[in-house]
Specification:
With 517 residues, the chain is an all-alpha fold. The strands form 2 sheets. It has a two-stranded antiparallel sheet with strand order 1-2. Strands 3-4 form a two-stranded antiparallel ribbon. Helix 1 packs antiparallel against helix 19. The longest helix has 20 residues.
Length: 517
């Protein structure tokens, strides 16, 4: 089922690409439309925003995930309208504004726990209302007199305090550099930070906010960074770049953890060794080290057969779990699952490690929902979080009841086409679901599990090359393309290793092909 060259191809591609392959972001692209209209690729960014607008006038995904990208895109279109008076832009801006007014008047959905949402959302509401003030005197009656309320549950006062502190020259909390654009005009030239050849804060928007539009015709390092990032998608930009360490550690841990044994380019392994410092590992240049990237990198290196000491992980321990980074709002179950995996694979466990593994097992089991799922702050889908937790708990050899509960949920939520997914069936979420079944089966015959896994594999075979919608959390949702592809390769390899499931896949694949012919 799996092409043996597929894993080698992924590794070769990421070895040659220090930035990583990530989907373009409506939120981040719209920030560049506002902040850097003179940057190369502006026309491509405008085409992207107009093409990505949904039928209801908004942007992004359901369940609260569409609010921030709709705010960002609408504000950018209002800025472009002020500059160009373009009719098409005005119509799209009006549709976006109406979508926001409707959502904010009727939607009680809690905002998702995405990066800096507590300051980005109020900031964009304020910016849109300021744009509308400027347009009241212009010939756009559909926009006249309209103003946005702040969404329920948001508080603009912390943002106002941050903006005032920056205006006074006070330092910004380091984790907010990634979202510097929220500070507004005071972000330009902010003296506490400075963009380099890899931008500022691993963020195109933060870099553009610091530089200002007048700098876009210069040859400053930050401008060269922006030109490089935007050129990858013909104008649009990802929500973060470069993220090479994140991509490489996740891909390696996924492939090696599933028993795939590709030749790993020496440059990939070397880059991961070099990424490990006293404070752990940062997923990308300009980001702070965090427990998630640290654990996944240590896990990947251990699977390569060359483990490093775990010393840098201990700084993230907080009471009965590990924090992703200091002073985080909410703990992450997937971060703690990755820490547990790193402990389980990095050499013979010491007494301290054994104690921590027991602690994490208890903590993870305590976070499981009544239906058998886990949910997390770094991904929109429960299938991802549940896969991470099941993988870690089975590698620990305990928590059989929790794993069985998760398996029952997976078997019970499979769609009629063999897929799984939160909003619709997707190849990415199906790969997680099948791996949960394979982990839990452990080689023991179970017809229901094997049939479900085979149907899932048939769906994956039938959807090769189908794009995956964005599900991963940053400021808005994104897709880490190579990481998701590695999951597909891993699950098909693991399924091939199970002869009973392998025998069942063929008939199901034929049935799927017949339905889609």
């Amino acid at each position: 089922m799996m092409d043996p060259a597929a894993a080698a191809g992924v590794l070769a591609d990421l070895s040659a690409d220090p930035y990583g392959q990530f989907s373009p972001s409506p939120y981040e692209t719209a920030r560049l439309v506002t902040l850097a209209p003179d940057l190369a690729g502006h026309a491509g960014r405008m085409r992207f925003l107009l093409a990505e607008q949904n039928g209801d006038g908004g942007w992004g995904r359901p369940d609260g995930y569409g609010l921030l990208p709709t705010l960002s895109a609408t504000e950018a279109l209002l800025a472009e309208l002020h500059r160009t008076r373009d009719v098409t832009v005005g119509l799209a801006a009006g549709r976006g504004l109406q979508a926001l007014l409707t959502r904010l008047a009727t939607d009680d959905t809690t905002l998702p726990d995405t990066v800096a949402v507590e300051v980005l959302v109020p900031g964009l509401v304020l910016d849109i209302n300021t744009r509308l003030d400027d347009l009241d005197a212009q010939p756009w009656p559909a926009l006249h007199g309209r103003r946005l309320p702040y969404p329920k549950g948001t508080n603009p006062e912390p943002l106002w305090a941050l903006r005032e502190a920056v205006r006074q020259g006070k330092p910004l909390p380091p984790k907010l550099v990634h979202s510097l654009e929220a500070i507004g005009p005071a972000a330009q030239g902010f003296s506490s930070v400075r963009p380099g050849i890899d931008g500022l804060g691993c963020s195109p928007a933060a870099t553009a906010a610091w530089l200002g539009n007048d700098a876009m015709t210069t040859d400053q390092p930050g401008v060269r960074y922006l030109k490089t990032v935007q050129a990858r998608h013909g104008g649009p930009v990802p929500v973060a770049a470069p993220l090479g360490v994140f991509e490489r550690s996740w891909v390696l841990a996924t492939l090696l953890g599933a028993g795939v044994e590709p030749r790993v380019p020496p440059a990939v392994a070397t880059s991961l060794y070099q990424a490990v410092g006293d404070d752990g590992v940062a997923g990308g240049t300009g980001l702070l080290p965090d427990a998630d990237d640290t654990a996944c990198t240590l896990h990947a290196l251990a699977l390569l057969g060359t483990p490093l000491p775990l010393d840098c992980l201990w700084a993230y321990q907080h009471d009965d779990h590990f924090v992703t980074y200091p002073e985080e709002r909410t703990p992450s179950v997937t971060t703690n699952a990755h820490v547990l995996q790193a402990f389980a694979t990095t050499g013979p466990p010491t007494r301290r490690v054994t104690k921590a593994m027991r602690m994490l097992t208890t903590w993870l089991c305590g976070r499981q929902g009544g239906d058998g799922t886990w949910s997390d702050k770094w991904h929109a889908s429960e299938y991802y979080a549940t896969f991470c937790c099941v993988s870690a708990l089975t590698s620990d050899g305990e928590s059989t009841a929790a794993v069985r509960k998760a398996v029952r949920w997976v078997v019970g939520t499979q769609r009629t086409d063999g897929s799984w997914g939160r909003w619709e069936g997707t190849p990415e979420e199906t790969a997680y679901a099948v791996q949960i079944l394979l982990h839990a089966n452990g080689g023991k015959p179970d017809p229901a599990i094997e049939q479900a896994a085979a149907r899932g594999c048939a769906y994956l075979l039938a959807t090769e090359g189908v794009p995956n919608p964005p599900l991963w959390h940053d400021k808005d949702l994104y897709t880490p393309d190579r990481i998701v592809l590695a999951q597909r390769i891993a699950v098909l390899h693991a399924a091939t290793a199970n002869p009973r499931i392998g025998m069942l896949v063929g008939p199901w694949a034929d049935a799927v092909a017949g339905r889609t012919a």
